[in-house]
## 1
Amino acid sequence: MYPSDYRYTKDHEWIKLDGPMGTIGITDYAQAELGDVVFVELPKAGTQVKAGQSFGTVESVKAVSEIFAPVSGEVVETNAALADSPEKINQDPHGAAWLVKVRLVDPKEISGLMDAAAYQAYIAEKAKEHST
Amino acid sequence: MRYLPKSPSERHEMLEAIGARSVEELFQSIPAKFRLREPLPLPGPLSEMEIIQYFQARAAENARGFTSFLGAGVYQHLRSVVTDALVQRGEFLTSYTPYQAEMAQGTLTAIFEFQTLMSQLTGQEVANASMYDGSTALTEAVLMAERLTGRHRVLIARSVHPEYRQVLATYAKNLGLEIEEIRYAPSGQVDHAALTPELLAGAAAIVVQSPNFFGVLEELPALAEKTHAAGGLVVTAITEAVSLGIVRPPAEADIVAMEGQAFGVAPSYGGPYVGVIATREKFMRQMPGRLAGQTTDAAGRRGFVLTLATREQHIRREKATSNICTNEALYALVATIHLCLLGKEGLREMALQNLAKARFAQAELEKVPGVRRVFSGPTFNEFTLEFPRSVKLINTALLREKIVGPFALGTHYPELTKRALVCVTETTPRAEIEHLVTAVRRILETPI
Amino acid sequence: MNSKTTETETLAGTTGAASRHISRDERLIFERSAPGKRGMELPPLDVPAVDPATALGRDFVRDSIEGFPEVSEIEVIRHFTRLSSWNYAIDLGMYPLGSCTMKYNPRVNEFVARLDGLASEHPQQPAEVSQGCLRILHDLQKCLLAITGMDAATLQPAAGAQGELTGLLIIRAYLESQGNARKKVLIPDSAHGTNPASVVIAGYEVQNIKSNQRGQIDTDRLREYVNDDVAALMLTNPSTIGVFEERIAEIAQILHERGALVYMDGANMNALAGIARPGDFGVDVMHLNLHKTFSTPHGGGGPGAGPVMVKKILEPFLPVPVVVQKENGQYALDHNRPRAIGRVRAYCGNFGVLLRALAYTLAYGPGIRQATEDAVVNANYIRKHLEGIFDLPYNLPSMHEVVFSDARQKKHGVNTTDIAKRLIDYGFHPYTTAFPLIVPGAMMIEPTESESREECDLFIGAMRAIAAEAEANPELLKTAPHSTRVGRLDEVAAARKPILRWKP
């Protein structure tokens, strides 16, 4: 479910590294919590994003969720297909529904993020909190 | 008390069922020192007849039976009894905001029709389900332009309704929004020469009103071209919505803020009215206020729901596009029914009658010695005249003739003392126009 | 009380079936249109006609409006009468929406609002021919001040949210006059969404404060938060769980000691009118929702009116104009108020709504206390009969409303929305769902004083029957309602590809 070559944040974003470039999306857990996604707002290419800061929003009918940048960098591409079919985020959050590609300022930032196993443990803990 | 459906014994039995010895026990959580021991010093209780008598007595203290030549943002137009009969149906009148779509399809369908009518009239792609009134709609439109452009300076024509500008100033003050006033030309229109590239650069929007507060129509296409070239937006206010029956709609504007009172809503000493925001589809997510959208149920039947609610305060809280919650739904319904009755031809005819009557009145008044027209730009049903005497004195004398005289512009424009804004609609009979002309002539002939 | 088993069975039988409500599929008015029809005629023009292109110039004239309706009078009557039959309304039955105070809207109020001499009056006409309108406003101010125990009022705000903004701007202007506007406004997590939204427009930052385990303001935490940056606390009392803030005096003291003010959202004033006055328990500014407590009709979403009442120290900052009575007994609008915050709306506010609120207050007089008592009796009666069936997250004494949660029904896969939608099949409007935010799966019930014991019993019966259905046949709830003209509508499709207007 959670690709082992991705890194994850506590705010439920993922990032996949490819040299100096990173692809960012939201996790399956995040899309399930949000429900049917109806709208995505993303920054334009060229925008500078800062690790931990909000750079866009994902909306369902009754909730809005901010997307936080896992790393700092410059947005080089946004997923244009999501404007017309935001439902892709529900269908394929770790693949076709990537949100933005960024050129990292400091690839070392990645070391502060969780790997798949750590993230799964983290959401399992969250689920437990919810049920009590 | 006639509004309360409980007998004394039912009250007693219900308290027993609750397990309370007395009703006071239910208020124990309020600290004793804050609980009132004496009845409130309120007038009443009054029976239905006494309530009617009280309000009839108040109505008699007003300008009942006077002929009015006031417009200035609020207009007297013909209304069909059909509209009032329909909006007084309890199913509309006493129904809540249509959050539960399955039991509110009546309201939702009517809102969808309202949004459609407002889009058609304004030449815009989408319109919302209503704002409080024109003044707050304009303020919200300006804040919307600020969000859309990320710019914090707004140019506003001095010919925009002065009370609308005051409301904008109140809101803008703490939001870091800078407002610059643009002067008017001898035509009464915004002075295009004042709109230099330097001024327009970095401005979020230019705000105009058409017909403007002096009754003059603005030339939007030229204005829009200039503004758009500088990366700004055009916000257009409309206070006399009946003008849209014949006047070219503000299609070049990016946001239209309209007061819909002219569509079948009584003047009612200032409200309730019905504000509207209309805009381009690409800006709809920055639009404040409720929106009804079309969809289907599981069986494929067409239905309507409130949509794009994530813009609103109950979901986005401090990040909402606006704090508006309650709007003016019932008066949006009034406007919808009124416009359906009037229809395409009726609205056009009403607008034509306004134009013709205003032109007649203007020509007749200009024949009075010392009275002359002030602005050269095209006007709809309001026009500005200069008088050889204080408008206030003239108006005081007119009250004795059972006439509420024209709006004294000096109240808001020190440079326009002795000037007044005259409004004539289809409701003003020719005889009353002639009465006004005779009365003004007589008043001006009387030595001070 | 009779539990409505037989009716339950009948309703269960309608699952998935066509509506038993009006079955005509009324089209949109645009789809009834045909060229040449009209529903209203004007008297003939009694002055010479004018050619618009000549009078205005060709560039200023519009073409005919594409798609604009052309229908006859009878078609308009039938169209809107049919639409109306798809609505629920107080005139049909109980509307237990918590926090909304959906009470009876007296018909005499509609009658007097339409009187010639009131409905016909222009807001700019001279005061000497507006004495009746001005006196109505002044009389209403006096009544509202008596009920709230405050010192001065403005009637200008068009709705509760605008009242909030007005109150906050008054606070800001006052603090500025003291030398420091400060930065933050504290808001409990149980607050209405309008509160934080209004705070931002007033130029303040929102600081949310977590409620304690009893759903009340945590005074220890409050003490930590209140410092010289805090302008005010914005609270609702009774709170949105329908409970009076017992430590209100202490709360006010904490704020006042640090020079901050207390703003009260008066949304829940229906629990207090005639019983207690906010002015007595430390509130500095408050608004009222006349479309809630004072019975003006909600009209499918508005209009409202949100008068703001303040303590003496804040009076100079009220928006202009202020309605005053002069020494000679005449009423007037006072514009000459140099310290005023400005104007929040054109003219004097929603006069037609204000007038209805006065008619309501005059009908009760001091007897308004009885209305409050009945509202609180109804809420407690419903609570008593549903406690044990639905989860009650905060077990404090209820005032005019009671908040349950769907915790017990969740075990059967049924949530608050499903229960709400099923209530529709029993002929009731749903209660408030998903609010307040501090109660997950909230079911917020406010019956108001307008409901008879019989209507309360019917509601209790329906709720109990639905609780039984949640166990026996959860699917019945999840697909509800089954009795309306349309079933649950696809909100996701509506939001993904918005269709906001009809097109030819």
## 2
Amino acid sequence: MSLSRLALLVSTALIGIGLPMPAVAVPTVTGADSPTAVRWLQKAAAAPNQVSYHGTQIITAWGPQGASSAMFDIVHAAQQGSEISVLGSSAAPGAKAFVQRATTTGAAIDGGPLALLQATYQLVDKCCTDIIGRAAVLVEALRDDRTLAARFWIDKASGLLLQRQLFSADGKTMVRATVFTELKIESSEFIAHLPPMMPNGVEALGLGKVDNLRSQGWVCAPQLPASLTLYDVHQDTTNGSLQFSYSDGLFNVSLFEQRGALDPAAVKGFSTTETPGVYLRYGMPSYVVWSSGGIVYTLIGDLPPDQLGEVIRSFAHDVPVKLTAIQRLGTGLAKIATWLTPMGAVSAKLG
Amino acid sequence: MTLQHPLDKLSAVVDGELDHDSRDKVLSHLVGCDTCRLEVDAQRRLRARMAALEAPEPSTDLMQRLMGVSSFSTEPREEVRPVLTPAATLFPQRSAFPAGRTGGTRPGASRSTRSRRRTGVLGAAGSAAAVASLLGTAFVVGDPARSEQPPTLQPPVASFSSDHASTSSGAPFADPVALLNSYNGAGYAGLSPTLQPVALTGR
């Protein structure tokens, strides 16, 4: 076992064992957000644009498939973006990705828009702690029923998000964790000789085009179950697909829509669900595909399984039609008969 | 010389239908038997008269009426005309008048029955094949998956993963797992596969 793999397993175990202790709502919280908690989160959202760093991060997700973990080496340049390398993975050795510095103005914490986080959860400042040898502030997000939804550890010195934990609806079961195991703040991080960014053909449409898209037959509800809210829309001009971004401030879901019907060959590697015609693959993130009304849906997100099921059930699905052999023969003979009649042939051409 | 008259062979000797030995025997008898010689002479005269007569031609009206009868044709005719079975035309030597054949009275009767059976079997097999073909086509056409569905497609999941990661607003590093799920084994995930990892300098 390689050293990095061992480190990954140990870190995963530490995340799972050491943290569920105060995983219930603190009874002293009030209904309003703690101003200091909001300020710390705002600082954390802005920090990646101001601070360069080099660190090792582990992401772990727990679900029906078990625990899935990945370890990354991240070189982040405040003015450029992040170069991410996979560590300790035999599946993708040497894999690298580069994420450009965000140009949008909306603040976000680990991908979740801060505005939605504030709107959905009550934010509580749990004050001071320390983690990986750095002084930090702990902020918690609580649901309306006072269960714990998330914890954020924010570096006091830099404002960087050091660790984030997400919990399922019971407030006790951790479903996802993002943890820095090493972090070094760099004063002048700069990544040179990066490959040119290829235009990916993705165009931001914004929420202003939503009504127009609906009139064209696209399905884009402003809200989905699990408190998910539509906050952005993109279109890939290369294939015409639309991407609807939903979030509750913690969990992020992208719903892709394309005109057509789902090719059965596309669900290889997916498992069937209790809903006929819906295929799912759990992981980091999870994938769900189905088709309905001439649209193929691909949902990608980090939702816990229960909430993911709620979201899936909120959509219409094409249920595969099953005919008996006799019914199928009858249908076929009727269709052939229409071909043989002059009016049938004409009507086919006329559509 | 025998006293027994070869009466059954006299007409045959007139017609020249006897073999060499039989003919010698009959001629030897005729030399010594006046009765038989007179009989042979009478038959020779009758044969000569018959040969002198012209064969009567059937009337035109009769031929036209005969041609009007559906069962009468100069072309080979089959009792069963199977549809879609060209095999039936592989036996043109069959009698043009199968109705004239009566079972057991002619040497070829049993063969004719077999031929008719074979024709029937071939016809039935051809019909069955046609029906099976029609039903097979109907079964395929009746597949609900073929009923006016829009074109099928395979969602580009890897590309969507990259989009999901990179378009999560605000964060420089929203979902690296989704981004790296689109990694194709060379270069940078989500970028052109011809690009290779680069050295990091200047930091």
